[in-house]
Amino acid sequence: xxxxxxxxxxxxxxxxxxxxxxxxxxxxxxxxxxxxxxxxxxxxxxxxxxxxxxxxxxxxxxxxxxxxxxxxxxxxxxxxxxxxxxxxxxxxxxxxxxxxxxxxxxxxxxxxxxxxxxxxxxxxxxxxxxxxxxxxxxxxxxxxxxxxxxxxxxxxxxxxxxxxxxxxxxxxxxxxxxxx
Length: 180
Fold this sequence. Notes:
The chain has 180 residues and is an alpha+beta fold.
């Protein structure tokens, strides 16, 4: 492999690592992984930064202290806001919210048990909640037919800003709200 190909390969590896990293990646970590000199590493990163700038990419690489991270190009911030707004407008229907509340308070629970409480078919609500990753299958009930048991996910906790199910309001909390 000639020097040019090796340099391009190193740039590709750095780019892939920065892309998948959730946090800034330090020079020290990259140097250890790639087993190259700090000078060559910084040169490759600088070239990547310039590559992104020269083609007005939607992604740029920024330096944060002794680390680097891929971020969205601020030049396209308005487009990102529009996209995020469209994405978050994907609100839960009343039926899905009702189903989610039943699952949150009664989990693990089967579809038949949910439908008994709601009095209507819950296929669509359950499918919608699964797609949004707010609920998941947590097992199978030990009865004939072994129906799936549903429970909430970490995404559910994040969405409602709670760290555990213990933080869900209880019946007493609802009575206080209704009394106001």
